[in-house]
Design a protein that fits this description.
Number of strands of chain B: 11
Number of helices of chain A: 13
Largest interface: A-B, 68 and 55 residues
Oligomer: heterodimer
Strand order of the largest sheet of chain B: 3-2-1-4-8-9-10
Helix content of chain B: 25-40%
Distance between the termini of chain A: 29 Å
Number of helices of chain B: 11
Strand order of the largest sheet of chain A: 2-3-1-4-5
Largest sheet of chain A: 5 strands, mixed
Radius of gyration of chain A: 37 Å
Structural class of chain B: alpha/beta
Distance between the termini of chain B: 153 Å
Structural class of chain A: alpha/beta
Order of helices and strands of chain A: HHEHEEHHEEHEEHEEEHEEEEEHHHHH
Strand content of chain B: 5-15%
Helix content of chain A: 40-55%
Chain lengths: ~525, ~400
């Protein structure tokens, strides 16, 4: 009986041991991996290697250049060498530690008949007109016309479309190469740091505002619609490759400048000196309503008609001389121009006086400010080169080319830094979730960066710019997706506080029984040794 | 010999003159460079002002935030560049004996609520999630522009937070908290995306210094009202309003800022609250900041001074004089032809005033009333017995 009882308890003990072992096995083999899998953050796969490869991307810009020689400019034996192609590379450092290799692919050829005719005409304007028509130039390409030193087109002019006229005694290869060194950089060296220019965006909003602080004295009338149609719209159409522009206008009454102008008795006029100009913008800005306009960057152009008590009002530069344009601008914001009412209109008139704003004068200043805000400034000319002024549209094609090059490079740099910083963030902060659509945006951005680099290397500027804009848009969408918020941070003591009440009651019996089983088996191993 | 001697002397004099001029040119060039280095390279200013506590007895936190808002606006930052988050409305609180005002000094000396306060996140919208979304820019696309922090890499941002806090956390709305690690990570994300040029972080809570311990991104300067283990104390109660009006640290900051104008040259080293006034020990952290605090102007963060340039060039446009004249004539004619505009009749006021009151239709009592009376009658008869029926009917 006792033996049977002992055998029964032994069986139960064995069953108990097996049960405990089974529990432990299920907990460890099934439970732990399941818990680990269900508590990890979801991350769709990202092309990390490609992103790090983007950082080391070597940008190459290719500029197809055509050099056209007229008959008299080249001696005969040199003429036989034409046409041929020369490739010339130059490295230009930019910000973000990126360097660009510019590859000038020069194709030398003889002038065609109509070009000969055009270049032998009397004045530069006629030559320009005749050369302009038959050629259609792709964006980003350059044509250089070499004329003989006896030509009547000297002194040299650099005409507005993407071509240059140059005369050098005998254009041997060496000499031409030397002159390349300092002429072509015209097109690449940015005058100002890129960060003070208008940020690159898909669209821009341009607002023209007329500020009339004294409607009792001045009844101001401006034909803004006509001016926009005639002067601004052609300029924006020419700049259309750089983004979508939308224009609006408004008139604000009783809007004062925040600064009191001082009286200058020498000229019996009022003036604002340069140091008070930065304080002018802020009080006015809240009334412009620019924040309600759109989500695109806004450029404000203000025309201020000073009140009768403060007329005429001039802006003084740092030397104390009145500025000719009577206007100033602020990078990334816009420009302000002060329009003084002609004192003749006050004679023998009853207040309010009707003021007709001369829109041509105003638009000349505003468009010049718009060019400066976009970084289209007069380049520093090397000696022996003269630039003719811009066309009626206000923008030359080579200026647009330069803007597009600069913008493409900046877009690529921005997209690359965004993607790299996203990859770094994901490494640093382990709790950020990456959903599938965010991952697809990242893939799109990487592909667009690579495509844009390829297009730049093959010289297609327009498609490179479009691809770079796509790259920036996709990378910003991916980085700023609302789902990337890392609200899942828990300090360590909180993690313990959550898991201990759940796991400890379950783990302690299992661990204790395992320990007990292990001790007993060890004892049973040792026992046979002892008896033996 | 004498000739060569004098020549050599002249040569040395000339050389020294040249060297001196060159040296001065170089020195001025170096000075220019140094000045540029010490000046901040920012082009615009933003401010994010957060009050995290609700309930009437936390009046002082709202007053703190509004006084910083007022100073920042006065020194030039426009509303479009300020994100103001207030967790509760004290000015229109039913317990406010002076509605539409929030005072910072007792005896109602200074009303910081003013006339044109623009609150971007109000009441229950002030959450940790919204705050982090504003900082990192991960905002849903339908958010209006006034609720976004649209800063760029040349923005100086002022971040001011106040409320109840502890060692390593700040309490939002009495229901959640933000830890110093989350804040540091948010600033790191801002840095990675180049959303700021320099950042000034001011916090006025108990144990405020713990909130800036974990920052690791460059160009951040942090000020706190008290050290770890210390409490920030409130300034003065007002017997008429019945609550404490301000905290000591922000009271001192407000008094300091009231004397600053947009052109002043005071620097950050002057903004130190003395122990007699603040009682707690204010802390600061400048190791992540690249410039020396004595070169940092107060207006670099609290004010907004823009960079301007005189426009010296114009472009030549062709005048289309014929078209101008004809359009001018057209517009003149249009003006004469138009009739004076008037408002359409929107409300038939006459009809409303002289209307007779309408008789209301009778409706039978609703189900609830019937059920209630049935219940009452049933209980009555159950309690007192059916024999009472004959006395009622």
């Amino acid at each position: 009986m006792a033996a049977a009882g002992a055998a029964a308890t032994h069986l139960e003990v064995a069953r108990g041991k097996r049960a405990a072992l089974f529990f432990a096995a299920v907990a460890i083999v099934l439970g732990l991996p399941l818990w680990w899998k269900t508590t990890e953050t979801y991350r769709a796969s990202l092309p990390y290697s490609q992103i790090s490869g983007l950082n080391a991307l070597q940008l190459r810009l290719m500029v197809p250049v055509t050099v056209v020689f007229t008959r008299e400019s080249v001696p005969l034996d040199d003429q036989e060498k034409l046409p041929f192609t020369v490739v010339h590379e130059r490295e230009i450092p930019l910000k973000y530690k990126m360097k660009i290799k510019c590859r000038f692919q020069k194709a030398y050829r003889r002038a065609l008949d109509h070009e000969e005719e055009a270049l032998s005409s009397g004045s530069v304007q006629e030559a320009e007109a005749m050369l302009d028509e038959p050629q259609e130039q792709a964006e980003g390409s350059l044509t250089v016309y070499v004329i003989s030193e006896h030509s009547s087109l000297l002194p040299q002019f650099c005409p507005p479309f993407g071509s240059m006229m140059e005369s050098s005694p005998i254009p041997e290869e060496k000499q031409v190469q030397l002159s390349w060194e300092y002429r072509l950089p015209l097109f690449f060296d940015p005058q100002e740091p890129l960060t003070s220019l208008t940020p690159v965006s898909v669209g821009y909003e341009i607002t023209f505002s007329l500020l009339n602080p004294d409607p009792k004295s001045h009844d101001v009338y401006w034909d803004i619609e006509g001016a926009v149609r005639r002067y601004v719209q052609p300029f924006l159409n020419a700049l259309g490759a750089a983004g979508n522009f939308s224009v609006d206008s408004q008139i604000l009454y009783y809007a004062m400048l925040g600064v009191n102008p001082r009286f200058d008795s020498a000229s019996s006029s009022y003036y604002l000196d340069m140091h008070s100009l930065p304080h002018v913008i802020n009080p006015v800005e809240s009334r412009l309503g620019s924040s309600a306009a759109s989500l695109y960057p806004v450029l404000n152009f203000l025309l201020y008609v000073p009140e009768l008590a403060h007329s005429p009002l001039y802006i003084q530069d740092k030397d104390g001389a009145p500025v000719a344009t009577n206007a100033f601008h602020s990078p990334r914001w816009g420009g302000i121009m002060v329009y003084n009412v002609d004192s003749k209109t006050y004679n023998a008139s009853v207040l309010p006086v009707r003021v007709e704003v001369d829109m041509v004068r105003v638009m000349e200043v505003f468009l010049a400010q718009l060019r400066l805000l976009f970084g289209i400034a007069q380049p520093q000319l090397p000696p022996k080169c003269l630039l003719s002024g811009p066309t009626s549209e206000g923008l030359m094609t080579w200026e647009l080319d330069r803007l597009l090059w600069a913008r493409s490079v900046e877009n690529l740099a921005t997209a690359t830094t965004t993607l790299t910083s996203l990859a770094q963030l994901l490494g640093k902060i382990s709790n950020i979730v990456i959903k599938d659509d965010v991952a697809s945006e990242v893939y799109k951005a990487v592909a667009a960066v690579q495509k844009s680099a390829e297009e730049l290397a093959s010289g297609h500027l327009a498609s490179a710019f479009v691809a770079s804009q796509e790259a920036v848009t996709s990378s910003e969408l991916a980085f700023f997706d609302p789902s990337l918020l890392h609200l899942l941070y828990f300090p360590d003591d909180q993690k313990f506080a959550i898991y201990i009440p759940l796991f400890l009651p379950m783990a302690v019996p299992i661990l204790l029984s395992l320990v007990k089983i292990f001790l007993e088996t060890r004892k049973s191993w040792r026992k046979p040794e002892k008896t033996d | 010999m004498a000739v060569t001697d004098s020549l050599s002397r002249a040569a040395t004099v000339l050389a020294t003159v040249l060297l001196l001029s060159f040296g001065s040119v170089a020195a001025s060039h170096i000075e220019d460079q140094a000045e540029q280095f010490f000046r901040s390279g920012h082009t615009n200013n933003w401010a994010v002002l957060v009050c995290t506590s609700r309930f009437w007895f936390n009046y002082r936190h709202v007053a703190n935030t509004l006084s910083v808002y007022r100073s920042v606006k006065r020194l030039g930052i426009p509303d479009s560049h300020i994100v103001l988050m207030l967790a509760d409305d004290m000015a229109c609180n039913p317990r406010n004996p002076k509605p539409a005002t929030v005072f910072s000094h007792k005896n109602m000396e200074l009303n910081v609520y003013g006339d044109d306060v623009e609150v971007d996140y109000r009441s229950y919208e002030v959450t940790v999630e919204n705050f982090l979304r504003v900082l990192t820019g991960r905002i849903p696309p339908s958010t209006p522009r006034s609720k976004r922090l649209l800063s760029d890499d040349r923005s100086n941002i002022l971040i001011y937070m106040t409320g109840h806090g502890g060692n390593g956390f700040l309490k939002f709305q009495d229901s959640e908290e933000i830890t110093n690690i989350e804040l540091a990570d948010a600033f790191e994300q801002m840095w990675q995306k180049r959303r700021y040029n320099e950042l000034l972080f001011i916090i006025d809570t108990c144990q405020g210094a713990s909130m800036y311990e974990r920052f690791y991104s460059p160009n951040i300067m942090a000020l706190a009202s008290s050290q770890v283990g210390e409490d920030s104390l409130s300034h003065q109660p007002d017997p008429a309003i019945g609550v404490h009006l301000m905290d000591r640290y922000t009271f001192y900051v407000l008094e300091f800022l009231e004397e600053i104008n947009p052109a002043s040259q005071t620097n950050m080293n002057d903004l130190v609250c003395p122990k007699s006034l603040c009682v707690s020990t204010p802390g600061h952290r400048t190791d992540l900041f690249q410039r020396d605090p004595k070169n940092v102007l107060i207006t670099d963060f609290f004010g907004s001074v823009r960079k301007v340039e005189i426009t010296t060039e114009t472009i030549k446009l062709q005048q289309d004089s014929e078209i101008m004249e004809s359009s001018y004539k057209e517009d003149q004619m249009d003006e004469k032809l138009m009739e004076p505009l008037k408002y359409a009749e929107q409300l038939p006021v006459a009809q409303i005033i002289h209307q007779k009151p309408k008789l209301k239709d009778w409706h039978p009592p609703g189900g609830f009333i019937l059920g209630l009376w049935a219940l009452i009658i049933m209980v009555f008869f159950k309690t007192y017995g059916i024999k009472h029926m004959k006395f009622i009917f």
